[in-house]
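Following up on my earlier thread - several people asked me to post the actual chain instead of describing it. Fair enough. Here it is, all 514 residues.
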Amino acid sequence: MLQKTFVDIGPVSSTLSSLDHQIIFGRRGTGKTHLLSVLRQARSASGEVVVQLDMRTIGSTGGIYSDPSLSLPQRATRLLVDVLAAIHGALLDQTGDDNALIHLGDSGNALNDFYGAHVSVKVQGTTTIESSRTQEESSSRDNSLGLKTNFSSAEVEAATKSGTSSKAVDGERHEVIGKEVYRVNFGNVGVAVRALVRTLPNKRLWLLIDEWSEIPLDIQPYLADLLRRALLPTRGVTMKIAAIEQRSRFMIPDRDVGNIGLELGADVATALNLDDHMVFENDEATAVGFFQNLVLKHVQAALEAEGMPAPKDVEQLISEGFTQANAFAEVVRACEGVPRDAINILSQAGQKANKSTISVNDVRFAARQWYQASKDGAVSASPQAKKLLTWIVDVVIKERQAKAFLLESSSKDDLIDYLYDERVLHLLRKGISAKDEAGKRFNVYGIDYGCYVDLINTAKAPKGLLDIGTTHAEFSANIPHTDLRAIRRCVLNLDDFYNQQKPSQKPQQDLFEI
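Reply from S.P.:
Thanks for posting it. Predicted structure:
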C-alpha cells in the first residue's frame, strides 16, 4: 500500500537515497513517515539492513520527562541507551526467518558485543558487599529388639536405624550507597558497531529516526550529540532523521566545550524541507500535478482492494469525481500543500456531495469543516496565538485584502512559529528582497485557506496574494520570482500587535493608592 500510494516530489526521493546523513523537515501531515517507510522498503529490497525507529515509542520516564534529580546529560544518556537497545532489538527481530538479511551465525557474536557495549551503569558513591556462610549438622540413631513366642516356636527380631545429615547455607548481601548512573563508552560502542556492520549485507546499516520532535526540546541537542559520537563516525552507517523544524533543536553553541549536538551542513547534509515542494503559490502546475497523482493512487489502491473498478488516469478521476477541473484545483488551494489535509478535505467534500460529483462549493464547505475540527481548536489552546491570528486576519485579509504578508527573515517570534506549526500560517518563500529595502531579506507567509473561506464571494474577499503596488493597490496572483519593486504594503509589523496587548497604565498616584 505504501508503494502504491507514494508520489515522488521532484528530487526528494533520489536525494534521500544518498549515503549522506540527512534531516528531513516537514510539518505534520506532509508525508515524512511515508517517505521514510518507502525508503526502508527500497533499501530492504536491495538487500540492505534498515532499522526504522519511532521516537514516540522509545524512552522511559527517567529519560524523557523532567526529573529534578537528574541532569540534562544524564537524561539524554538514558534515552541514548534506550535508542541503542531499540536498534539492537530491531536487528535481532530481523534474524527470525529463512529470508532474513541477518544470520546469527555471522552476526550473533557482534550483536552480543553491541548489546554489552551500550549497557553500562556506574555507581556514584560506595558499594558494600557482605558474605556469610552457615553450617548445620544433625545425627540420629534408633535401636529396637522384639521377641515373639508361641507353643511351637519362638522368634527374635532386632533392628537398628541411624542417620546423619548436614546443610550449608551461603548468603551474600549487596548494599549500594549512592546513585546508579548510566554511562556510554563511545569507544566500545564504536568498535561494536563497526564489527556488527562488517557482518551485514553490503556492510551497510540504514538508521531511520522518525518523530524526532516528540523528544523534549531541552534534551534534543544532547541526544543528537551522543548519536554523533556513538554512531556517525562508523563507516557504513547512514542516518536519516525526520523532524518538525519549529519543534527541533539540534545544536547548542558552547564556547567552553564546543558545539553540543548536530551541526547542519557539517555533521549532517543540508536538510530537505517537504514544505518547500508542494505549496500552490510557488508553482501551481507542479502542485496540482502532485496532488492529482496522489489522489489517483489512493483511489486506485482503495477501490482495487474492494474489487471495484478504479479510474485509469487523472482525466478519468477528474471527470468522474468532480464537476470541473477547478473543483480539484480548489482542493489543492485549500490544503495549502499538506497531503494529509488534502485527503481529509476530500473525504468531507465527498460526504457532502453524497452520490453527486464534488463541486467547488463542496470543497469550500469541507475546508471550513476541516479547519474548525482540526486547526481552530489547536490554535485556541494558546490564547495569545489565537489573538495574533485574529489580528493578522483583520489586518492582512480584511483591511489589505491580501492572502499573504512579509516578515523580515532575521526576526524570530514564538507565536508565529506556533501558528506555522499548527498549519494556519504557511511559509511560501524565504529570503526575497525589495528595491526600497536594500540589504534586507524577507519571508513570505500565507494565511490558511480556512481563515478566509467565508469571505470568498464577498466584498472583503482577498484580491490577490500580495499588494506589490508602490502608490496604489496592485495585487500579484503568485509570488514574484524576482525582487519586488516595493514592500511597504506587504510587511506586517508585529510591534503593532504587541503594543495593543500591553495593559494600559494608570497615573502614578493611582498606583500608590492601590
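The radius of gyration is 34 Å. That should answer part of your original question.
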